[in-house]
């Protein structure tokens, strides 16, 4: 196990050294196709205990990566869940062995559409098979298996991460002691599919996309991907948050320009979000991962009855939503909670009061931390850790 | 159901909880409707090692419960009980909550479907203090048990012990044990029926089992 124990001796900073596990075997996909070979990139924090009972798996969101804590070496920015991970925080590396892996289809180390297709020696592009949330979870399960980890103390994630959490409980209930889906859903809604389609069409309408073959053309559909990100970014916030942060404030000017420059701060902000995103994300990955979310519907594989996915489950669930989240609204979490109740599962459900929209799960939300601390302590105690 | 039930009927305090705790066998599966901040579930977990779940309307209450490690969901007795499975629990508890529901009869029916046994407690509106208050003051009774005004009380369906016994008959529910609380003392009574009990009891607590074919 030596190779998976990251060094936490460096006080204050918890480095996120990324490792890649290469599988020569095939990953069987829901579509019927398979990926072979395939790689899963991951980071880990803390130490695995002797009876291997303290592992927490973090599942990242649509544009997330394995660099949940510490500094992200690709962007030079802090990890996306530094608020949650660290000594004295809910996910404490002093207590738990924490893993976060890049999803299959992603673009920060795991096999995705930008990876080399062994059959052609060129990037897959649109030859990459369509993947699902289930496939992402299967790849994570293979990684844990390779690391010799049989059970997870908790699997936790927000947004698309929350979808993976529910899929873990559906696919591998015996391996999941507890599950924390945050701002998630058991199915992607029509509205969310609609937003994703806008994003995909923006990418595919970019002349530099070249039918997904832009690597060969030495181009990038930068404008399309930036527009996709801009549109999506609006859905991550709330009207209240936008008004508070930007209002109708003008950007670097005292008067309207009577043109189409970024007169308003919100325009400037969105343009910035779009253009920085392009630097770190692969456009085809964006297509594939949004598609995986659109296809997600756990009930569909259980005759439309979500409760059947969790029948006889021993997993303890803690479902979390936010009041101002209109992308994955509380109603979606309640839908999951009702199914879990109907299945007789052990479930807690907390709706956190926040005006920060869907992105609240990434932010400093003391009430969420308090809830998760309580839930995790109780779970750790039941697992014999505390 | 409301977050303020506990405070509007607070006379029995922990005594009420301890009695319920004593009534429930170890290792039972328990559903507490209107569980507040989880005091009863916590006590039951500690003393009886039960497998407990809670439903609470107030988000503040739910968050407090989950933060102390209890399995509680935000929900409403009137709306959400239908999502629980038949006979999913050994005991379903409705402590000081019945009188705050929209339809006490439907809530009782649902609980009888979900729980093998029910424990129901409520303030008795036929208590002599309440009667005297109405008779002599001519205004809606405000007592230490019912300490809210008519316009802001969460207790929208107050009933008497006789009313409750009548409803149980109508719903084919069998009362197994009866307790009354008066002058801050809890008393086990063979039968809570009759005018005297209905006059002296400030609160009543019943263990009820279902006759309904499941």
How does CATH name the architecture of chain B?
A: 3-Layer(aba) Sandwich
Strand content of chain A: 15-25%
From the spread of the alpha carbons, the general shape of chain A counts as globular
CATH topology of chain B: Rossmann fold
Fraction of helical residues of chain A: 25-40%
How many strands in all of chain B? 8
Q: What is the number of helical segments of chain B per DSSP (H or I, 4+ residues)?
A: 9
Strand percent estimate of chain B: 15-25%
Number of domains of chain A: 2
CATH topology of the largest domain in chain A: Rossmann fold
Shape of chain B: globular
CATH superfamily of the largest domain in chain A: Alpha/Beta hydrolase fold, catalytic domain
Unreliable runs of chain A: 1-13
| Structural class category of chain B | alpha/beta
Query: How would you state the average pLDDT of chain B, rounded?
Result: 89
Which homologous superfamily in CATH is the superfamily of chain B? Vaccinia Virus protein VP39
Instruction: Give the oligomeric state of the chains in this entry, treating copies of one chain as homo and distinct chains as hetero.
Output: heterodimer
Mean pLDDT level of chain A: 94
GO molecular function, one term (chain A): homoserine O-acetyltransferase activity
GO biological process, one term (chain A): homoserine metabolic process
Protein name (chain A): Homoserine O-acetyltransferase
Pathway (chain A): Amino-acid biosynthesis; L-methionine biosynthesis via de novo pathway; O-acetyl-L-homoserine from L-homoserine: step 1/1
How are the SSEs placed, and which strands pair?
The complex is a heterodimer of chains A (386) and B (214).
Chain A: E1 19-23, E2 27-28, E3 34-35, E4 38-45, E5 55-59, E6 71-72, E7 77-78, E8 97-101, E9 116-117, E10 122-123, H1 133-146, E11 154-158, H2 160-171, E12 178-182, H3 190-205, H4 222-236, H5 239-245, H6 265-280, H7 283-295, E13 316-322, H8 330-342, E14 346-352, H9 366-382
Parallel strand pairs in A: 5-8, 5-11, 11-12, 12-13, 13-14
Antiparallel strand pairs in A: 1-4, 2-3, 4-8, 6-7, 9-10
Helix pairs in contact in A: 1-2, 3-4, 3-7, 4-6
Chain B: H1 5-8, H2 13-23, E1 29-33, H3 39-48, E2 51-56, H4 59-67, E3 72-74, H5 77-80, E4 89-95, H6 104-114, E5 115-123, H7 128-137, H8 161-170, E6 173-182, E7 185-189, H9 195-200, E8 203-210
Parallel strand pairs in B: 1-2, 1-4, 2-3, 4-5
Antiparallel strand pairs in B: 5-8, 6-7, 6-8
Organism (chain B): PS1 clade bacterium
Protein name (chain B): Methionine biosynthesis protein MetW
Pfam family, one (chain B): MetW
């Amino acid at each position: 196990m030596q190779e998976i124990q990251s060094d936490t001796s460096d006080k204050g900073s918890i480095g996120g050294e990324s490792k890649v596990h290469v599988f020569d075997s095939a990953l069987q996909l829901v579509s019927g196709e398979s990926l072979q070979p395939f790689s899963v990139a991951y980071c880990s924090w803390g130490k695995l205990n002797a009876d291997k009972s303290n592992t927490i798996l973090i599942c990242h969101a649509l544009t997330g990566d394995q660099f949940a804590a510490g500094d992200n070496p690709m962007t030079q920015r802090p990890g996306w869940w530094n608020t949650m991970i660290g000594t004295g925080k809910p996910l404490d590396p002093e207590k738990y062995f924490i893993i976060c892996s890049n999803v299959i289809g992603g673009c920060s180390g795991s096999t995705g559409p930008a990876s080399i297709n062994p059959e052609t020696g060129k990037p897959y592009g649109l030859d990459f098979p369509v993947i699902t949330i289930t496939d992402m979870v299967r790849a994570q399960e293979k990684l844990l298996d390779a690391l010799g980890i049989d059970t997870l103390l908790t699997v936790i994630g927000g947004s698309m991460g929350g979808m993976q959490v529910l899929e873990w409980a559906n696919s591998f209930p015996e391996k999941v002691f507890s599950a924390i889906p945050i701002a998630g859903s058991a199915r992607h809604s029509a509205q969310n599919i609609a937003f994703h389609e806008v994003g995909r069409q923006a990418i595919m309408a970019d002349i530099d996309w070249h039918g997904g073959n832009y690597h060969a053309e030495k181009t990038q559909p930068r404008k399309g991907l930036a527009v996709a990100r801009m549109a999506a970014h609006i859905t991550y916030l709330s009207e209240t948050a936008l008004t508070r942060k930007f209002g109708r404030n003008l950007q670097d000017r005292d008067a309207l320009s009577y043109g189409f420059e970024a007169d308003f701060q919100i325009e400037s902000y969105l343009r910035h979000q779009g253009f920085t995103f392009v630097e770190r994300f692969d456009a085809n990955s964006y297509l594939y991962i949004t598609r995986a979310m659109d296809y997600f519907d756990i009930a569909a594989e259980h005759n439309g009855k979500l409760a059947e996915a969790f029948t006889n489950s021993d997993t303890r669930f803690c479902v979390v939503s936010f009041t101002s989240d209109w992308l994955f609204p509380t109603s979606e979490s309640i839908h999951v909670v009702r199914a879990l109740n109907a299945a007789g599962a052990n479930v807690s459900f907390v709706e956190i009061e926040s005006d920060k929209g869907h992105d609240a799960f990434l932010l400093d939300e003391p009430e969420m931390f308090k809830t998760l601390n309580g839930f995790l302590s109780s779970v750790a105690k039941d697992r014999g850790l505390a | 159901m409301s977050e303020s039930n506990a405070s509007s009927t607070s006379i029995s305090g922990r005594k009420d909880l301890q009695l319920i705790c004593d009534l429930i066998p170890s290792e039972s599966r328990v559903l507490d409707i209107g569980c507040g901040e989880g005091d009863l579930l916590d006590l039951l977990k500690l003393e009886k090692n039960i497998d407990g779940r809670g439903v609470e309307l107030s988000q503040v209450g739910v968050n407090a419960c989950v933060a102390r490690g209890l399995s509680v969901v935000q929900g409403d007795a009137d709306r959400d009980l239908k999502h629980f499975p038949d006979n999913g629990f050994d005991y379903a508890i409705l402590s000081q909550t019945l009188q705050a529901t929209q339809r006490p009869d439907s809530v009782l029916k649902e609980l009888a479907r979900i729980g093998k046994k029910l424990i129901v407690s409520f303030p008795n509106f036929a208590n002599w203090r309440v009667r005297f208050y109405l008779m002599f003051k001519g205004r809606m009774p405000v007592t230490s048990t019912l300490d809210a005004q008519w316009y802001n009380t969460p207790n929208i369906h107050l009933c008497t012990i006789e009313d409750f016994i009548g409803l149980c008959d109508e719903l084919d529910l069998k009362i197994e044990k009866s307790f009354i609380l008066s002058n801050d003392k809890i008393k086990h009574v063979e039968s809570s029926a009759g005018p005297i009990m209905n006059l002296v009891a400030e609160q009543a607590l019943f263990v009820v089992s279902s006759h309904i074919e499941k």
